[in-house]
Amino acid sequence: MTRGSKRAIAGYCTLTLMAAAATVWALMSGLARLDLLGDAVQVRIVECHSEGGGRGGSHSVCSGPQVGNEAHTLKIRYDGREGEVVKAVRTPWSGYTPVDRSFVSWGVHVLTPVLPILGGAVTGALTLREVRRVRRDSRSNAGVRSRYDAEGDGRIPEPAGL
After folding, report:
1. pTM as predicted
2. Gyration radius (Cα) of the chain, Å
3. CA-CA distance, 12 to 124, in Å (whole number)?
4. Which residues have a Cβ under 8 Å from the Cβ of 61 and sit 6 or more positions away?
5. CA 84 to CA 45: how far, in whole Å?
6. Rounded to an integer, what distance in angstroms lies between the CA atom of residue 87 and that of residue 97?
7. What is the pLDDT of residues 38-70, one digit of tens each?
8. What pLDDT score was predicted for residue 151?
9. What confidence category does residue 31 fall into, taking pLDDT thresholds of 50, 70 and 90?
């Protein structure tokens, strides 16, 4: 196995694993934002302010108590008004986000995992192709010995001189 083959296999494996991780993240994010996991709570917005800035831009963050559990204050990224009651869901990375069940939101969150799935399939296929190529090359070279390795053991006849 050559050094270039090892690097190619390692690179393709890394890209495949990264695509799998991106697929899981997109899938869990979509399930959470569409409230398909069933952990939604209601939050009464008490205070909103702008956070961020710089390259990422600014966004509104609202906070307020959870309806039914006034002692627990939640902070969500939301462009709302004070006094509004919003349905929010806990994301897998332990933040809260508002539930959005619009048609466009469904389309975006259902189709977002498709790109990393396709990327993972392509890089997985490239990994398998490279591994099979290396195996095929190693099998075809297994029985072949160099002329210089076999000299003197009587298997290669000396060239006949004229």
Report:
1. 0.68
2. 30
3. 7
4. 48, 49, 50, 51, 75, 76, 77, 78
5. 5
6. 9
7. 778 888 988 888 877 777 777 788 888 888 888
8. 52
9. confident
- Reduced DSSP (H G I as helix, E B as strand, rest coil) percent helix, strand, coil of the chain, to 5: 45, 25, 30
Residue 143 per-residue DSSP state: S
Query: Can you tell me the distance from the alpha carbon of 48 to that of 102, in angstroms, rounded to the nearest whole number?
Result: 23
Which helix (H) or strand (E) segment is 142 a member of? helix 114-142
Do residues 57 and 73 touch, judged by C-beta distance below 8 A?
no
Q: Collapsing DSSP states into helix, strand and coil, what is residue 50?
A: strand
Token couple for 135: 């195996």
69-105 per-position pLDDT tens digit: 888 888 888 887 888 898 988 877 777 888 888 888 8
Instruction: Strands of the chain (E only): list them.
Output: 40-44, 47-52, 58-66, 69-77, 85-90, 96-98
